[in-house]
Design a protein that fits this description.
11 helices, single chain, mainly alpha, about 300 residues, globular, about 0% strand
């Protein structure tokens, strides 16, 4: 119980802090690839802290104010259901479904924010976010369903600790599940070319164009935490089954620190790879993105059916 409380505090701290630092690292990598100096790594942290000190202007009704708070709370709730240092702060049976719901609430809040104001750009951004979430969330659900079928578990912690002992005959399907998960992390994280809802140079940040001050800071922070959580989920499903057993025979606290460090390093490596890819990628049109998501979803459904056929 004590370790879960410690893990909860650690989860909240790393989500709040490293989501900002990772974004700064990503901005620096893209700048270097494009032969620019780029902002300092802590620039995102400076931006958010400055916005938090700035008053906001209310451009809509009650939902305009509630949406960023809901997004921020949902983003923080999502990280508590993912293993941190090998221990999940909040773990229970069927928490995989709650995780899907909570992570979707961040996008839903962004969509509601765009529809809460009478602004063409905000409405366009909200429509795009709605189309993206409807085409992407099912893919994330399929990826997690494949992991659940392969491990016979319906909790994220149970899945993470069982992946390493599944039948070797299912390894090709496990690899496919990882590939689908990586794709979903990229799309759900709003990385280029899938940053269609905000699209700063096209629709002036879409749903967020009417936001300012503290409310804008909460929204941007929530979106970065969501991005970080999805990457952390992938890192956890790599670290817990394949790296954590190496440290299982040592002191509990030391093992916790080593597993946590491994998760951070794998998360950072994935984030840097994504940031490097962003530097060479142009934004998609919304119809291209939806069409691609449809094709990936259909392919993933085929593999899900195969997984069910071989494991049930």
């Amino acid at each position: 119980m004590i370790m879960r409380l410690v893990s909860l505090c650690v989860a909240l701290v790393i989500a709040l802090v490293f989501s900002l630092i990772f974004d700064g690292i990503g901005r620096k990598i893209k700048a270097r690839i494009q032969q620019r100096m780029g902002p300092p790594i802590l620039q995102t942290m400076y931006d958010v802290s400055k916005l938090l000190k700035t008053p906001y202007i209310v451009s809509g009704g009650l939902m305009f104010i509630l949406a960023p708070c809901l997004a921020f709370a949902s983003a923080l709730a999502s990280i508590t259901m993912v293993p941190v240092g090998g221990i999940t702060p909040i773990s229970f049976s069927f928490d995989i479904f709650v995780f899907l719901y909570v992570i979707a609430m961040v996008s839903l809040s962004l969509m509601l924010a765009g529809f809460s104001v009478q602004n063409t750009y905000a409405n366009i951004g909200a429509n795009r976010e709605m189309m993206l979430i409807l085409s992407t969330e099912p893919i994330l659900g399929v990826a997690l369903a494949m992991f659940a079928l392969l491990t016979k578990r319906l909790s994220i912690e149970g899945i993470a600790y069982t992946i390493g002992v599944i039948d070797y005959r299912f390894l090709p399907l496990l690899l496919v599940a990882y590939i689908i998960l990586v794709y979903t992390v990229y799309v759900e994280g709003g990385f280029i070319p899938f940053d269609l809802a905000e699209a700063e140079t096209e629709i002036l940040e879409g749903p967020l164009c009417e936001y300012s001050g503290r409310l804008l800071a909460l929204f941007k922070w929530a979106l970065l935490i969501k991005r970080f959580t999805l990457i952390w989920l992938f890192a956890s499903l790599i670290t817990i089954p394949f790296v954590a057993p190496v440290f299982s025979g040592i002191n509990t606290v030391i093992s916790y620190i080593l597993v946590l460090t491994s998760q951070l390093l794998i998360s950072l490596a994935l984030y840097c790879s994504i940031a490097a890819n962003e530097a060479f990628t142009a934004r998609y049109k919304i119809d291209w993105a939806i069409s691609l998501n449809k094709r990936v979803f259909l392919i993933s459904i085929i593999f899900l059916a195969m997984t069910a056929m071989f494991t049930l």
